[in-house]
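Quick one, T. Sequence first:
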Amino acid sequence: MIKILKEVFLKFEKKHQKKLVILFSGSTLSLFFEFFTLASLLPVINILIEGENSRISYFNVDFSNIPLVISIFVSAILISTIYRLWFLKVSSKAIFKIGTEISDNIFRKVIRQKYLFYKKFKSEDFISSISKINSLIGGIILPALLIFFSLLMVIGSFSFLFLTINKSLIIFCLFYLSAYLIFAYFVRKKLLDNGKIIAKREGDRVALSQTALGDIRNIKLNNSYKKVEAENYEMSNSQNIAKATNIFINGSPRYVMEAVLIIIISIFLLRDVNLLDKENLSQIAILLFAFQRVLPQIQAFFSNWAVINSNTGMASDLIELLSLEEEEEFEEKESFVFDSNIEDGLQIEINNISYGYNDRKLIIDELNISLEKQDLFLVSGPTGSGKTTLIDLILGLLKPNSGEIIFKYNKKNILAHNLNTAFIGVVSQINYLPSGSIAEIITGKNSLDKNEIDLFSHSLSLSNCYEFLSSAPHKSLFDREFFGQNASRLSGGQRQRIAIARALYSSNGLLILDEPTSALDQETETEVLNKVFNHFNGIIILIAHKIDPLKFNLETRALKQINFTDDGITKLK
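C-alpha cells:
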C-alpha cells in the first residue's frame, strides 16, 4: 500500500504534492484535539462518581469547580467536532479539485502525443482510464488522508490512556488493536486480487460497450443479442462479486470486535465484581469512552486501508498514463495569410521523401512531385499500401525519414511539420461527426453571419447535401437534436457528404479527400466529385483503391497521378 501511494504521489505535479502535504499537516491538529477532549473528560467522570464532594487534580491542575469542568468538557467536544467537520469539508473539496486537474492533465498528455502513439493506443483504454480518475481520488488519495487522520486520532486516544489508566488495561488495548492488524494481514491478498478484477472488468466493459454500439447493425442482423448480453453479464457479475466481497471485508471486523469487547468486559466483571468500585470505575468509564471514539477510527483506518488495496489495480493503470510525457511540441506553427487578390495559389513541393514505420520496409521511397493551384493529384493502390501514410506526411502528422515537403505561398516557404494546417480541408476514410446541428458540424458554430451563411450554403450545394436536406425544415440545420446524436439519423452516404461539406467550408487552397465517396452510388459519386473538381479553387488530392479519371470532367484541372503497388510507387501521369 505504501509503495503504491508513494508512486502515485511522485507522479503528481509539484503544486499537487504541496497541496497534499499541507492537508496532511493540517490533519495533525486532530491529535491535539483528541487528547484535549479525553483530558477534559477525566474530571467530569469523577464528578459523576463522587458528586459535589469531588476534589480532584490532574496534571497539577485543580478541577474542583463543577461548572468550569463541564464548560471545558463541552467546549472541547464542540471545538473538536467543528474542526473535524471543517477539515473533512476542506480536504474533500481540495482532493477532488486535485482530481479534476489530474484528469485534465491525463487528457492533455494523451491528446498531445506524437501521431504514431495513436497507431497502437486503444481508445477504450483511454476512456476507461479517465473514468478511473474518481477511483484514484475516492479510492486512493482521500482514503490515505482519512487513514492518516484516523491514525492520529488513535494515537491521541491511546497516548492519553497510557498516561491515565491501569497498565493491565493498556495491555488489553494493545491486544485489541493487534487483532485488527492480524485480520488485515490475512485479507490483504484477497483485497488486492479483487482490486485487479474490478480494474480489468471496468476496462473490459467499456470496450464491450463501444464494440456493441459500433457493431449494433450486425448484432441485429445476426440476432447475436444473447452472446453480447452474456459477455456483459459475466463481466458485470464478476466485478460486482469482487466489490461485494471487499465491502464485506471492510465492514466485518467492526461488528466482531465490538462483540468481543463486550464479552471480555462482561467476563471480567463476572470474575471480579470489585472492578466496579470507585477506584476502578472512573478508569473503566474513561476506557469505554475512549473506545467509543477510537473504535470508529480503527474501523475507518482498516476500511480505508482496504479501499486503497482494492483500488491498486486501477491506480497502476493511471500511473502509466501519468508517466506519459507531453511529447508533441506545441509551439506556434507558421501560417499563411491567404489573399484572393494574389493570382499565384498554394504550391506543394514533395522532394525526394522516404518513409517506413520503425525498421520495416520503406512504404514510400524517394518520391518527388510538385503540386500547384488547380492540380488534381490522384493516389490509387490497394488497402494498406501507403496512400493514407502519404497524406499524413503531407499534413505534417508524420515526418519523412529523409527528404522534405514544402508548402509555398506568396514567396513564403514552410515545411509540412512546421505548418499550421487549419486551412486544409480533409475528408478521412472514417469521419467523426460531433453532436450538434448540421451548421455546428460543418462550421463549428451555430450562429453565422451573412458571409458565413453564404459559404455554408455553397459547401452544402457542392457536396449535394441539399438533395436530402431540402425535405427538412430550414431551421433544422440549426437544430441540435433534429438529426440525432452525432448525426446518427443520417445514412452512411449522407454522413460522407456532410463531411465533404465540412472540408469545403474550412479549406483554403488545399482539399484532401481520402476515400470520400465509398458509401455513395456511382452516379452520386460522379456528380459530387465533378462539382468539387470544377468549383474548388485550389489543389485537390484524391485517394481511392481504384480511380478512373475518364469519368470525371477535368477541364479546369491538371491531372497528376501515382499508384501504390507491392513493388513501390508508379507515376501514371
